[in-house]
Amino acid sequence: MTTYLWTIAVIIIFLAINAVLVRLRAKHVKFSKRVFLALGLGLVFGIVLQFIFGNGNEIITKSVDWINIVGSGYVAFLQMLIMPLIFISIVGAFTKLTSSKNLGKISFNVLGTLIGTTAIAALIGILVVFLFNLDGATFTKGAAETARISELAQRQELVKDLTIPQQIVSFIPKNIFADLAGTRETSTIAVVIFSALTGIAYLNMKKKETKEAEFFLNLIQSLDRLVMQLVKIVLRMTPYGIFALMIRMSATSDLKAIIDLGTFVVASYVALITMFIIHLIILILNHINPVNYLKKVFPVLSFAFTSRSSAGSLPLNIETQRKALGVDDATANFSASFGLSIGQNGCAGIYPAMLAAIVAPTVGINVHSISYILVIIAVVSISSFGVAGVGGGATFASLIVLGSLNLPVEIVGLVISVEPLIDMGRTALNVNGSMLAGITTSRRLHELDESILNNPEAVVEAR
């Protein structure tokens, strides 16, 4: 009975704090402030629960089960939007092309930037492992880690026998309806490919069948507006979803395990921050003011950090590029959409490279060998295709990389305790990488609108 009453009390407090967040929205408090407030309140609330009841207590388990309706529900809504967003954004990018000859230039520059920066990110991840002497490190295995390793072993079965050429073939959408439903690990990249082919077909149709092409254009524009309205509805849930997710993370995490993995967390953020600085250097080399850039992209990066969703950040990403950075429409759509599944610097670059460098010495491999470092970078770059835009992408990328290098995958499960902490920074870096690809490509192709870029009032804020 006591457990039942305490559970009700926790849920009532949870609902009361949500009511405060609703009230703040009614008072027009900025979206980013409400999201960060929700993040902080969630962390504190979860830690307090664990301090009062203890890790694994039945009260926490039952309370979080109810709170999870909001947190997991929010994530599910974000996942619901991924495929429609990808399809509409990429096809929409083709409809915005002023000339089909620009397609090759935009694609080459965007993909080149995404994959090139992922290769650099992989190198940074490896060097940071060396810096913190983590190569060959071992981590504690608890009950949660054991369960996670068992789950990963099952997922590894799906990809362990695939060579890299076979993995590339797996990206092709054999059944687009199945991929739109997200039934495969590579469904995201499959939808990207299908969307690009649909866009190319539209350009061909536009030359010969103008009436039908105009109908298709109107249909895509209508669907775009409809999907954007759906996105706005889901984004309004963000503070409440973040609040619930942070409670779950801090209330159910093994704090001792997090402390034990503290060096790995610090090393990860050193790598992420270093790569972020490299992004800023690339901006400088392209004659773009990094301070001005940071002011304009802060809303979308803060959303990505707190939501841990590159896909959920897609609409804000595109709008920020177009209305705050002055990137042309086609390039903004291409870079933001491709960045969901290709060349994610954090999830598909730094993270799998770090894990490979850590675990390689445990099986007798000289990870300090220049040739082996180059092998890791190459495998990471190729494997960076097909990473999903909502939670789990880094795990899939790591399984592919470790499997391709014949390294044990258990390490992916051993760091489960700190996964949410690191994933926030990884997601922000992923999104920044896609915006970097957009603005630098637009600059190289002389399509960047300087008047928007240099206008301090041209800022996009989620609501």
Describe the structure.
With 463 residues, this protein is an all-alpha fold. The protein has one domain: Proton glutamate symport protein (Orthogonal Bundle). It is 76% helix and 0% strand. It is built from 21 helices and no strands. The protein has helices at 2-26, 31-53, 58-95, 101-131, 143-159, 164-170, 176-180, 187-208, 210-235, 238-252, 255-260, 262-285, 290-307, 314-323, 329-338, 345-359, 370-383, 393-404, 410-414, 419-444, 450-453. Helix 3 crosses helix 10 (238-252) and helix 4 runs antiparallel to helix 20. The longest helix has 38 residues, at 58-95. The mean pLDDT is 85.
CATH fold group: Proton glutamate symport protein
Number of helices, where a helix is a run of at least 4 consecutive DSSP H or I residues:
21
How much of the residues is beta strand, in percent? under 5%
- What's the CATH C level? Mainly Alpha
Family: Belongs to the dicarboxylate/amino acid:cation symporter (DAACS) (TC 2.A.23) family.
Keywords: Amino-acid transport, Membrane, Transmembrane, Transmembrane helix, Transport
Transmembrane segments: 6-24, 36-53, 73-94, 106-132, 187-205, 226-249, 261-285, 372-390, 396-416
Main location: membrane
